[in-house]
Prior knowledge:
heterodimer, A: alpha/beta, Rossmann fold, B: CATH 2.40.50.100
Amino acid sequence: MSNYPKPDAATLVKIYEKMELIRQNDERAHKVVKAGRIIMPYYSPRGQEVIPSAISVSLTAQDYICTIYRGTHDMLAKGVPLKLLWAELAGRVTGTCKGKGGPMHITHPETGVMVTTGVVGSSMPIANGLAWASQLSGDGRVTIANFGDGAANIGAFHESLNMAALWKLPVIFVCQNNRYAEHTTFANSTAVERIGDRAASYGMPGITIDGNDPDVMYGAAKIAIDRARAGEGPTLIEAMTYRFNGHLLGDDGHYMDKEERQRAIAADPVARLRKRLIDEGALSEADAVRIETDISAQLDEAIEFALQSEYPALDEIRRDVFAHELA
Amino acid sequence: MAYEIILPKIGFSMNEAVFSEWLVADGGTVKEGDPLYAIESDKSTQEIESPASGTLRINAEPGTTYQVGDILGTID
């Protein structure tokens, strides 16, 4: 990994800005739900900020991502507009899916967020389809398939990796190994130690890296993205991370190892990168505060916009289901 | 303007909760983010933080079951 491309100072600041946005967005989601202002199932990505932030700085606006219900970090890093995101979380007509998708199905093709799926393991075959379309049309796009450690034991994982390798699809499989599949530990559900090793079965490169290290995550993603864009085929990246919270808001995570959890929270990747950027002179304390304040103001505006928006009308329920309306 | 304290939906299957206790007395001063009340739902007790800062006005009574969306009190 010492030969990985390294992010320069400006890129690291960009990565940090995305991470801080994800952190604050998560804090607001907890607050708004607990205040009873929005009713939604919420799966916190807190602790996993580095992964999509360090990937997306090497993606274009046209590149695609597929994500899962624990996916607000992936969406925000890719650039989904905050107002539209919050309106969709709140189920309002002004949201990315006109309020009919909700938090588990955020889709925003304009920024390349092609699907958020609630079906564990289904981001991968969908990503293959998008990547195949890019291969056929020659549009030069790459597609990122995000999924968790639990999904790596679903049949679709194996089928998708085989096909992607066979057809040399421009897709990168990013397993965000946060140590828990819902309430089950990785060790209790998976016989191999490293998901990354499985790539060998499909004839593609596979690596297991520290997904909370922005340098390593950036480097690994950059190599895989360049490779996919050059037509050389897919890569499997297992990014090791840790889920700070329980499976979803309301689950206190009592089944999680207390010491391991405390250690992970104490090593918060957002706070760590902020400190490093200041120590290295890439960011001043005043710059960092300005970034935080700007994000906070944007979130105020986005949440207010969402709460002021209307719910979709009942006659909308059958619209947008098929490409051609059945009427 | 009074800020309404609404019973939130925390957890996939929660529709109602038994109100356990207020952690601040009626008329007391509350600060946003500090623990405000406890509820019991899905067999677990949860403390909920105050959604705003101000003076607490209590409606909800311990031991009573409330529906998601019910107003438990206000913060002036």
